[in-house]
């Protein structure tokens, strides 16, 4: 007769089961499994600690069943005994064939699936139903931490054929609880307003409080509590402490009340500063790095800054890992603190290797030649910072990270990791003006040719007023000493009338050679020599041009055209300590340049230019930054030509207007206009046209507030930013006497008279700009409105350009 004993009916996942009645030991003659589908017999036997021939009792059998459960193969196990044969009837855990998510707005699908993997919940794995409740609770706990107290997570398990299941996680996130009120109890030295305005969280304000964050989040509250603590510690309250924080939830789970209980303590002052350890003979230098002295109110931030300054000091001397710790001795009777600095420089570090990564296009040598930290040399934190700044100024990388890795007590590796960005550009532009309409331009340039760091330009630009072909090559390291060199061949046909300038055509071609010489890390001198031919034709006979031909008339052809050939030399001084090559946030760059044609050229003239940009961070990370820009220009002739003093050629005049110089105004339209004199009823009359003639002097200036582009992910912060600006500028002619025409009666555009001739006719505009360093080059969107203009000025409210960035 078949005899069986039901030892375990159903065992739950924890492995608990009903105790068995005492049975006699017996020898196992065979082991059988029933219900195996996906799990092989061999895998099941390997999980079972019982073998044929073993003598077992009830305890051994219960341990065997536990081992089978721990294998995670089975959902339920029944054990039967037929004589000396053990029969295991099992039900395998179902296989997860699909996972679906719905209603998860706060958490991304990737975040949830990664979290489920930690519980072995993924497609293809066996389902352990016991972990589902834990998963649901942990997900709900996360929602509670971000203020969604009504959030619910439900798991729906749908059976499928062949012992498979589909899992669906249904999220009902609900609304985020609002902070109804934040109360701080125990503050006597500072008012609630003083403390609360420093918090990122705030209680519910009115509709006008647009930027208030009244959504409760546990992590943000913890950060805000640290802000309060730091605020007190920086003002001498060294015994300050937060006693208790209470968060009370309204019954409807839509609002919370936060109460913070604090103990301020007294204000403590510094009564002494001491140093413990080996200062390597630099006692006075290190003491001077401490930013506070006896009698000052204790400030934790000053202490931390002093620690950092001391570490940097030793870092510049080659000590890679100096330890600087502060131990304050607090005297509660006198409310004073003795600040003890414990200094241990450690061993001087040497650089074993400089490892470079992340440069997919740019060659290693391009990065290594910018490094001021040398292999086999002493490690210098100053050299590392200089190296980082030089790499950033290249403009090839959006991110430059330099860190050190200790190899031994006195050896380190320097790891340089970069993230490349577009260094070439497809120069294109589109603009819309109130009078100029739509304009287009285009061109191509590569600033990091084949990863060599050399700049190669093969540009062809065509727009309404010019055809430009420009071939250029510049190498920053013509010699190993960083002497740069370059060459340029160019052709340009310029139709001035289509560029808002008085009508003439200038066909220019030439060649130029240049060289640059480093003075130090941030200063550089540049020189160039060039030959150029300017072919002038299709000129209108306006009064300013007549003055020019009065001097150079002998060079004019019979058809009124002329060719001017000249050789010029240029010199420049550039100082640049910007933190980045593009979208800088800190530092200054200024360039002083001079150009002069050599004696014997058809035209003898000179031009002087000065440009400056100054970035100052408002926030430590540079997300909020100010930019001040300025530009000055002056040119004139020198020497005599056929007894007449030479002047600056009209085609070398300065022009102001457009997104490069004065946003909000049409390109080249700010400044003097062409004047025509005619006869009417026997009297001379003057007419002022809409066409600009430029001037030999100009200035522009701008102030900008730069901030992160709104509604954009932080991952794009290094590629996109926006700004608010105010621009101003003008151009005028110092050599032409416009008062000559005051005796003539005006016949056309009389409101223009006098508006364009002399300095003091400043134009100004305000607006906003969005800049994106895209794969095709910088994209610039500008919206500007003039706030200071004169009669006849042409405005251009919206501008879009590709290729140039400040």
**N-end to C-end Cα span:** 96 Å
Structural classification: mainly beta
Largest sheet features: 16 strands, antiparallel, barrel
**Major beta sheet, strand line-up:** 18-19-20-21-22-23-24-25-26-27-28-33-34-36-37-38
Q: List segments where confidence is low: pLDDT < 50 over at least 5 consecutive residues.
A: 1-22, 204-212, 431-437
Q: Tell me the β content.
A: 35-45%
Mean pLDDT: 83
Residues in helices, as a percent range: 10-25%
Dominant shape: elongated
Number of helices: 11
Oligomer: single chain
> Radius of gyration, rounded?
39 Å
The number of distinct β-strands equals 38
Describe the structure.
The protein is mainly β and 806 residues long. The chain has a 16-stranded antiparallel barrel with strand order 18-19-20-21-22-23-24-25-26-27-28-33-34-36-37-38. The termini are far apart. The model is unreliable at 1-22, 204-212 and 431-437 (pLDDT under 50).
